[in-house]
Amino acid sequence: MRGIAMIGIAVMHESAIARMPKVELHLHIEGSLEPELMFALAKRNDVELPYASIEEVRAAYDFSNLQSFLDIYYAGALVLQTEQDFYDLTWAYMERCQADKVRHTEIFFDAQTHTDRGVAFETVVKGITRALSDGRERMGISSHLILCFLRHLSAEAAMTTLEQALPYRDHIIGVGLDSSEKGHPPEKFTEVFDRARGEGFLTVAHAGEEGPAAYIEQALDLLKVQRIDHGVRCVEDPLLVRRLQKEQIPLTVCPLSNVRLRVFDRLADHNLKHLLDAGLCVTVNSDDPAYFGGYIGQNLLETTRALNLDLDDLERLARNAVTASFLDDGGKEDLMIQIDQWREQAGQGCG
Ligand code: ADE
Ligand code: ZN
């Protein structure tokens, strides 16, 4: 009987997760490049791939750490060359959003990965924003775009990239910091982020994924970020955990990514439930779904199973993501009402 009841709860949660109105806050658009589209674009642009088949590509996605992933991820992005390529990439992600009931998404793009090999900043932004605009019109999915600086490159290169972004200020809501974390502390980018904030951009940064808790503090105190991307290593500093809770600094956690990049050995070892119970503003996101085995719905589902999350936990995750988003107050209220309605239905056992 107990077993049957547990299966019933599992099915109910699966249905509740499928129906939950979602907000995604940590998604690298280049990380949504599925092998099928990689092959199609390689053919279209006459780019030679180091893989003979889609199966071979997937077999290569066996990572030992962040850097081993980044090497393959940057190589995959070489197939992206024209505005239409960036449109097709982003449109494919919007279709996944629609299937997953994502109502709002805030997307990172790595401009330097493209501009450093001669693709114009304008080409990248135009392709992505055209697809986001179509997603808004045809699917009712709202979105914001965030320019990430590659932290393994110099602060001067980041400043040049920021200057390239200025004419597109209407399309880019904020700036972020990603790529190889260890050895590239947030303090390296203090001046760039000062300038970005002065120009009206909001700020976020990857910190405490592979790097130490001190990088999270630097991102808060020196880069003055509104959110921390990942942040799971905050637990190494209890004072920092207390600060994150007190100031309700959002963490955009990416559970499947953390397992694939060996931040945690198994999903069951992930600290997300611990952080949620400690009252932190935790959210669930997909990071680079084409490389890590699932989009936001799959991240929620697998995390729910591994950590025994209940409906209250799921509701908290849904509301945290709305609160942590860069939507205006009206947009947030609309989504909170959708979550009220979802929770009422889910609570009645209709999922
Ligand atoms: N770029 C794409 N995914 C990333 C991640 N998980 N960490 C740092 N940089 C990234
Ligand atoms: Zn990321």
Structure notes:
The protein is of the alpha/beta class and 351 residues long. The chain has one domain (20-350): TIM Barrel (Alpha-Beta Barrel). Helices cover 54% and strands 13% of the residues. It has 17 helices and 8 strands. The protein has helices at residues 2-19, 35-44, 54-60, 66-76, 83-99, 111-115, 121-139, 155-165, 190-198, 213-221, 238-246, 255-260, 272-277, 289-292, 296-307, 311-324, 329-350, and strands at 22-28, 102-109, 142-150, 174-178, 202-207, 227-230, 251-253, 282-284. An 8-stranded parallel β-sheet has the order 1-2-3-4-5-6-7-8. Strand 4 (174-178), helix 9 and strand 5 form a beta-alpha-beta unit. Helix 8 packs parallel to helix 9. The longest helix has 22 residues, at 329-350. The two termini are 21 Å apart.
Number of helices: 17
Rounded to the nearest angstrom, the radius of gyration is 19 Å
Bound molecules: adenine, zinc ion
From the 3D structure, determine the CATH topology: TIM Barrel
Biggest beta sheet attributes: 8 strands, parallel
Key terms for this structure?
single chain, about 350 residues, alpha/beta, TIM Barrel, eight-stranded parallel sheet, about 55% helix, about 15% strand, globular, binds adenine, binds zinc ion
